[in-house]
Amino acid sequence: FSSSSSLTVLFEACISVVRAISIHLIMDDVDLEALVNDMNSSFESLYTSCSVQTESTPLLHNGQLPRHAAYHTHAQPTSPHQRLHRSQPMHILAVRRLQEEEQQYRTSSLPAIPNPFPELCSPASSPTLSSGSLPQCQPSGKYIIKVFSEDGMGKVVEIPADMTARDLCQFLVYKNHCVDDNSWALVEHHPALGLERCLEDHELVVQVQASMTSESKFLFRKNYAKYEFFKNPLNFFPEQMVAFCQETSGTIPPSQLLQNFLNSSSCPEIQGYLYVKEMARKSWKKLYVFLRRSGLYFSTKGTSKEPRHLQLLADLEDSNVFTVITGRKLHNAPTDFEFCIKPNKVRNEVKELRMLCAEDEQSRTCWMTAFRLFKYGILLYQNYKIPQQRKTLLSHFSAPVRSVSENSLVAMDFSGRIGRVIDNPVEAQSAAMEEGHAWRKRSQRMNILGSPSPLHPSSLSGVIHRTQLWFHGRISREESHKMIHQQGRVDGMFLLRDSQSNPKAFVLTLCHHQKIKHFQILPCEEDGQMFLSLDDGATKFTDLIQLVEFYVLNRGVLPCKLKHPCTTVAL
């Protein structure tokens, strides 16, 4: 009955507290502090009146008795004087006071351990990370990417969300056993718009794919001109097109040309005339245009640079520069050197594209290269340096180490009865040349004596070139132009193909000063043996492989040496 009486007293006290709260709420001037004090005094009086001495029994976190405590309780007989006391209500302030004392005791009893990450703490004594300083969360998971080759065949690749264009190209080079010369690139191709561009090495492939349509696709091809402007900047930036926005004296020195483009504090600009297509129209206007870090502008009054005469044509931050591959007939362009600035939000809307047209190929290359430099800046130079640093690092481990026996090799002459060592290097070189001519005469005598087998070197010389990456068979003149244009159009780019006018001849297609030239390789006969020559028989070769190897080392009658083979790969 003692517990029931306590509950009755508790119930009456709660009713009195509720009544007091209601009275205070009805009144206009509610004193919250007095209300809290009344509640505390009520609960304290209730607690002191109902509190009795109870046995201290350890409890678990869920309020149950431990096993040994339960057994001990049932084992002791209950006497009439002993009463079973239920848990009594405690005041909230008392509970909080006990919790604070317990926390203080735990903290003081533990040894002082220095915080290894003070920057992650939020007290005023330690620095905190602001929202701007936190790194952006990268998307997680795997994504499916389909990459196409020049022959139209595609390959499905599963890549992570943080894979860059360079990483994907390295992966495809490894999977397809290609020659890794750091010239492979991933191309964003839009067939509906007739546009394409080469992705920068640091761009995330998944982010680029998110802005593409279902008809767009990625192409895997060579691009020798990706970083060619770092090697020969004067060929890409004509002196009359480069100037300072606030020029004081003359033009930029050639030694500081690239530094001014890469330095964000400098203010270089590209200036010149461009044909600009009017929005939603087929007409073109010739305007004087300025390309700066802030955007592409045109002057409304001649060649004036005053701010009041400049109007914005395109922004650099949210746009990319593309090459137009559909030709001048589709957009009725005044010249063949067309390019486009496409905003990232635009998908298939041709009306939103900013179509531009240059006077020649060098001007178009200058505008497009400057656009990349202004947008990405030092990132392009870092992308250019990464393969060179990797090559330098690998050269220390992959350098061939010659053995003692190789270092002791000498030239020998076995023409006499006794062999002798050739000490004179000039004599050693002439002996090697004589040995090569003697081997050629021996192979010629073997051809005369009998028909050669299909695996004989003389029969293979007529077809062995077809296995080379630079030979493309019976492609047309226009197809060879398109292939060289797609892969960069830099000095020394070449390919070989069958001649369409002479079935026994071949054609060497070579790029020099952004112009494509063709040289016919004709067969010639000497001493009953057929040779191939590029200069009317002055220099003769047994096959095309020898011819290519010669002109890689020697310019000869060509305007430049053969440097970059124009190749394709089948995925």
UniProtKB/TrEMBL annotation:
SUPFAM superfamilies: PH domain-like, SH2 domain, Ubiquitin-like. One of its GO terms (biological process) is negative regulation of Wnt signaling pathway. It is found in: Cytoplasm. GO terms for molecular function: insulin receptor binding. GO terms for cellular component: cytoplasm. The keyword Phosphoprotein applies. SMART domains: PH, RA, SH2. Residues 1-20 form the signal peptide. Residues 141-225 form the Ras-associating domain. Residues 267-376 form the PH domain. Its main location: cytoplasm. Residues 470-566 form the SH2 domain. Pfam families: BPS, PH, RA_2, SH2. Belongs to the GRB7/10/14 family. This is Growth factor receptor-bound protein 10-like. The gene is LOC107751877.
